Amino acid sequence: MDLNGSQLPYSCTLFMPSAAVAPKLCRDFVRGVLNILGFGHLADAATLCTSELVSNVHQHASGTVHLQFTAERARVRIAVYDGSTVLPKPREAAAHEECGRGLGLVRALSDGCGVIDDRLGVLAKGLWFELDTGRAVA
């Protein structure tokens, strides 16, 4: 099914425990929604960025992962919320380190990214990224 943007704006939400399987489930969810909406050309960048943000929740926070997906004609925005009050600290990973590159990848692959404080008190914060829907297929 390909709706070719006929259902835009479109928003959906996914909640799950911050278990080891959460990054894969969120990647699959994002890829599926992008394909349905006709934005499959964004799937590689979107799933990698999603995986990095959800992996950070699994590694550094506990509780629930809240993924919010929003698509408009010009952009797709994905936000990942968690229960930790600790804000991320982007850094340059040394060549020998296995961790520390995720937020840099999100910055490099997205058309914008940032942090949201959750003012509702349900979860502590969210990290988001956006992709321009007019991106050329890589």
UniProtKB/TrEMBL annotation:
Residues 39-115 form the Histidine kinase/HSP90-like ATPase domain. Keywords: ATP-binding, Kinase, Nucleotide-binding, Serine/threonine-protein kinase, Transferase. GO terms for molecular function: ATP binding; protein serine/threonine kinase activity. It comes from the Bacteria. InterPro entries: Anti-sigma-factor_SerPK, HATPase_C_sf, HATPase_dom. Pfam families: HATPase_c_2. PANTHER family: ANTI-SIGMA-F FACTOR RSBW, ANTI-SIGMA-F FACTOR RSBW-RELATED. This is ATP-binding protein.
